[in-house]
Amino acid sequence: MANLGGRTNNGISTNHVEIPIHISNGVELKPIQEVALAESSSIIDYSQRAQWLRAAVLGANDGLVSVASLMMGVGAVKKDISAMLLAGFAGLVAGACSMAIGEFVSVYTQYDIEMTQIKREREANNNRGVNEETQREKLPNPFQAALASALAFSVGALVPLIAAVFIRNHKIRMGVVAAAVSLALLVFGGVGAVLGKTPVTRSCLRVLVGGWMAMAITFGLTKLIGSADL
Questions:
Q1: 3-state secondary structure string, the chain?
Q2: Main role (predicted)?
Q3: β-strands 2-7, 13-19: how paired?
Q4: pLDDT digits 0-9 by tens, 171-198
Q5: At what angle do helices 50-77 and 81-124 cross, to 10 degrees?
Q6: Phi and psi angles of residue 86, each rounded to the nearest 5 degrees, phi first
Q7: pTM for the whole thing?
Q8: 60: which of 24, 156, 175, 214 fits an S-S bond (Cβ 3.0–4.6 Å)?
Q9: Adjacent-strand bridge partners of 17
């Protein structure tokens, strides 16, 4: 109980304020450090998503843009739907294999470099103060990255193939493929931005404009070469 106030000449307090202070019995308040640690543990570390997110987004965009551009290039010189579909399917298989192998090799190289660094740190500290098991868990997974790239590439490549397979008219087919690819580019760009907590509009526009440029360049150059009878 806190007593605040003054005293009169006869020693009697004329004004005082009693402030009750209640202390809960049997309840131990957590230190500030423990509260901060509990709050920080609930925060998601989005940087941990970078490994598989990068491979998935890259694979999906690459499959979508490369196969669509390949089909648009073939469609620039041939109106036969079989030629477009065959070129697109070949691009899907070849691209998925290429993405998986390339991602596996690059990530495995990174894995070897980081493992070597862990061993150097362990030797420098005489096996003390280095939690190798924890560090190993944070290393990139080559198999996971390769699988994510191949699957994502295949998903992206299926969009122009499905868009073209049911349309017989050549001009309408080309327009539908371009529209379907544009919509898929916006979706992939938005999904990648949401998962990585980056600006959605900027990501969507960047992916969309890049896809348009790839299809336009491929279509134009193929049309030019085809008209020159090379």
A1: CEEEEEECCCCCEEEEEEECCCCCCCCCCCCHHHHHHHHHHCCCCHHHHHHHHHHHHHHHHHHHHHHHHHHHHHHHHCCCHHHHHHHHHHHHHHHHHHHHHHHHHHHHHHHHHHHHHHHHHHHHCCCCCCCHHHHHHCCCCHHHHHHHHHHHHHHHHHHHHHHHHCCCCHHHHHHHHHHHHHHHHHHHHHHHHHHHCCCHHHHHHHHHHHHHHHHHHHHHHHHHHHHCCC
A2: Vacuolar Fe(2+) uptake transporter.
A3: antiparallel
A4: 999 999 999 999 999 988 888 788 778 8
A5: 160
A6: -65, -40
A7: 0.67
A8: 156
A9: 4
Tokens 């450090």 belong to 33
Length of the chain as a residue count: 230
The position carrying tokens 């987004």 is 57
Both tokens of residue 80? 């036969």
